[in-house]
TrEMBL record:
<dbReference type="GO" id="GO:0000287">
    <property type="term" value="F:magnesium ion binding"/>
</dbReference>
<feature type="binding site">
    <location>
        <position position="59"/>
    </location>
    <ligand>
        <name>Mg(2+)</name>
    </ligand>
</feature>
<dbReference type="InterPro" id="IPR037143">
    <property type="entry name" value="4-PPantetheinyl_Trfase_dom_sf"/>
</dbReference>
<feature type="domain" description="4'-phosphopantetheinyl transferase">
    <location>
        <begin position="5"/>
        <end position="96"/>
    </location>
</feature>
<dbReference type="Pfam" id="PF01648">
    <property type="entry name" value="ACPS"/>
</dbReference>
<keyword id="KW-0443">Lipid metabolism</keyword>
<keyword id="KW-0963">Cytoplasm</keyword>
<keyword id="KW-0460">Magnesium</keyword>
<dbReference type="InterPro" id="IPR002582">
    <property type="entry name" value="ACPS"/>
</dbReference>
<feature type="binding site">
    <location>
        <position position="8"/>
    </location>
    <ligand>
        <name>Mg(2+)</name>
    </ligand>
</feature>
<keyword id="KW-0808">Transferase</keyword>
<dbReference type="InterPro" id="IPR004568">
    <property type="entry name" value="Ppantetheine-prot_Trfase_dom"/>
</dbReference>
<protein>
    <recommendedName>
        <fullName>Holo-[acyl-carrier-protein] synthase</fullName>
        <ecNumber>2.7.8.7</ecNumber>
    </recommendedName>
</protein>
<comment type="function">
    <text>Transfers the 4'-phosphopantetheine moiety from coenzyme A to a Ser of acyl-carrier-protein.</text>
</comment>
<dbReference type="InterPro" id="IPR008278">
    <property type="entry name" value="4-PPantetheinyl_Trfase_dom"/>
</dbReference>
<comment type="similarity">
    <text>Belongs to the P-Pant transferase superfamily. AcpS family.</text>
</comment>
<dbReference type="GO" id="GO:0008897">
    <property type="term" value="F:holo-[acyl-carrier-protein] synthase activity"/>
</dbReference>
Length: 139
């Protein structure tokens, strides 16, 4: 059963400007250690796009949760991680995880589906939150 859907389009140039202006302060405030490591392994030409896609994923997730960045949900509560297959998904903590748990019907567990792409100067992400009956795996 679908619980929430969110999407976001981010201008990579805007992220580049924020990185130039605020650097590590912005990175450490908004991105998880895993996200930072992934972006910092990229070439300088791909670094901002890597952060922009993850920024868009966080924005899309906040929309799918139905809160935006309110009610205790922060950018740092959502982190893009990759499954062993390489497929991206989201790992939620803090207020985002609390909100996700409140959205789940009894005897269901969440499945967070994420897709991200970029075509400079834009990055796009879409998140779908599903409630899966206990005993059923995720996709």
């Amino acid at each position: 059963m679908m619980i929430g859907l969110g999407s976001d389009l981010c201008d990579i140039r805007r992220v580049e400007r924020v990185l130039e202006r605020h650097g590590q302060r912005f990175i450490e405030r908004c991105f998880t250690e895993i996200e930072r490591a992934k972006a910092e392994r990229r070439t300088s030409a791909l670094r901002a796009a890597t952060y922009a896609k993850r920024w868009a994923a966080k924005e899309a997730c906040a929309k799918a949760l139905g809160t935006g960045f309110a009610q205790g949900v922060f950018h740092s509560d959502m982190g893009v991680v990759n499954l062993p297959s390489g497929q991206p998904t989201l790992h939620l903590t803090g207020g985002a995880l609390i909100r996700l748990r409140r959205l789940m019907p009894a005897a269901h567990h969440p499945s967070l589906l994420l897709t991200m792409t970029d075509e400079p100067p834009y990055a796009f992400a879409q998140v779908m939150i599903q409630a899966m009956p206990e005993g059923h795996g995720t996709f």
